[in-house]
Amino acid sequence: MSAASATNMKQALARWCRAGFVPQHAHGWEWFFMRLFLAVLVFYSLQEFKPYTFDAQPVPRGVAHFFPLTFLHENGPVDFSSIKRLEIPGALSIRLDGPGWYDTVVLLAAVLGALYVWGRGLIVTLPLLALLHTLPWTYSNSQGFTHHGNQLISMVLIVQAIVVWWWQIRAWRGKAALSVGLAGQLIYYSQGMVAFSYLAGAITKLINSKGLWLWRSNNICIELIKSHRLEFYANLDPNYAGDPPAALWLLNHPWTTRLLFDAGFFVELFAIIALRSRPWALLTGCLIIAFHRSVWLLMALEFPMHEYLLIIFLVNLPYWMWWAAKGRRASSPTAHATV
């Protein structure tokens, strides 16, 4: 490639970047739906009783390094079969034999979630909601094993709390209003947190493999057999007995395996382009969801909370439904959110 061609490519890339990668105006209803869906997701993700059964934190993670989270324990080991509960499948599970931290967290999640959806007092509501979601899952991760299926929700709540406080501090200092309102800022940085989590995952793969992940990705069949074995020994399900056919196929087709998983790697590596514009966010969100679905089909490994966040903030179905109906003939939306 000649020097002139390289210069032209750099200039074209610079123009492409300058045309986006900034917060965009948001409809009031668009931001409302995002708050509603996220509040439901937070409430749903806190319907797990297991973290409250632990009575110690042998391997502290995160804030557990600074203060113990053992207060979340429900007064000793719990016999699940003896607990009376009020259950609404997929929505609510509350103990009826006396209040505990589980019940308290569920109740606070409902109250704070309702305030968050209302959109008032976010300067207080968001930090409390972020803390409420972070503590039980940090305690769960402090048991000697780490599961990051819920941490991205906490990270989105934390970044939203930071944006709200940054916005308020600007107002207190009398700084000029930004061209894009608070709603647009919150959406943009929430998208950024989701996208950055995948970029960080790709970089971590490269660091841990000393740059050889792309070449060694064909060895993923070993992880497939491992997850298959775990499923079998967890429930002695005969459907998981023996070697999974998919793993054997991947083992016998190393270059096809590399092509499939390396494509997923590059989707993660370039996830940050979701911040350029709404169409790029939609494309990136759909590609990452397709990546998650392919991993689930091959390895029975899924991260539903991540996929829900992708649907909420990157795919953004309410906006595209509006755009398909009449948005193409409408001017750019403006919206403001109160702190």
Can you tag this structure with a few keywords?
13 helices, two-stranded antiparallel ribbon, mainly alpha
What can you tell me about this protein's structure?
- With 339 residues, the protein is mainly alpha-helical.
- It is 61% helix and 2% strand.
- The chain has helices at 3-18, 28-45, 101-118, 122-141, 151-172, 182-208, 213-216, 220-235, 245-252, 254-269, 278-299, 304-315, 317-325, and strands spanning 85-88, 92-95.
- A two-stranded antiparallel ribbon has the order 1-2.
- A hairpin with a 3-residue loop joins strand 1 and strand 2.
- Helix 3 packs antiparallel against helix 4 and helix 4 packs antiparallel against helix 5.
- The protein starts with a helix and ends in a 14-residue tail after the last helix.
Order of helices and strands: HHEEHHHHHHHHHHH
For the biggest β-sheet, the strand order reads: 1-2
Question: What is the alpha-carbon Rg in Å?
Answer: 23 Å
Let me know the largest β-sheet. Answer: 2 strands, antiparallel
Backbone shape: globular
- Strand percentage lies at under 5%
Q: Number of helical runs?
A: 13
Cα distance, first to last residue?
52 Å
Helix content: 55-70%
Strand count = 2
Structural class estimated from helices and strands: mainly alpha
Low-pLDDT segments: 76-86, 88-98
Mean pLDDT: 85
